Amino acid sequence: EDQVTQSPEALRLQEGESSSLNCSYTVSGLRGLFWYRQDPGKGPEFLFTLYSAGEEKEKERLKATLTKKESFLHITAPKPEDSATYLCAVQSNQAGTALIFGKGTTLSVSS
Amino acid sequence: KAGVTQTPRYLIKTRGQQVTLSCSPISGHRSVSWYQQTPGQGLQFLFEYFSETQRNKGNFPGRFSGRQFSNSRSEMNVSTLELGDSALYLCASSLDGVEGSPLHFGNGTRLTVT
Lengths: 111, 114
What we know:
heterodimer; A: mainly beta; 6-stranded mixed beta sheet; 5-stranded antiparallel beta sheet; 11 strands; globular; B: mainly beta; 4-stranded antiparallel beta sheet
């Protein structure tokens, strides 16, 4: 069964304090791994898609990386506006077009 | 470009009633998916429609159904509502639904069942 586990559940950082969020996955053939950001009261906002081990994508202070078993979302010098819940999801051969989501990491950045 | 639009934003219903939620995808997107989000289970896939046909279905009871119209707009229906159906229902669209294509989500409909 396809499974996605995110850690930690919650993370508190000071402004400028870099860190990483982890997404471990077990799937029957990875078709894509997705990172989303979700603010309270809103739907998930698409950040990145990664397709194969070794791939990296960057956007402003965020960098996503992928291995055969996990993905990391690195946050460099975060700002308070980076506070949100970050969701990881996978598409697999078994699930087809469905996204299998992790429970998310809630990030709080204080100034 | 307008994003995914869901209506209504909030709904309060009573157990046993039925409800219909609406979704307008991003212009040009032909695939529409529905997800349920709850604090305990997170985001769970309900179903996906492409060109008016249900192409994929999650593990939800038959009380949950949906449809897609020729203009790609979609509706989902929940019959005989239960307290456990209280959740945020999210609609997402993608260009063609090809595996690996990112989904773009609306802001959801918050359903409360009393």
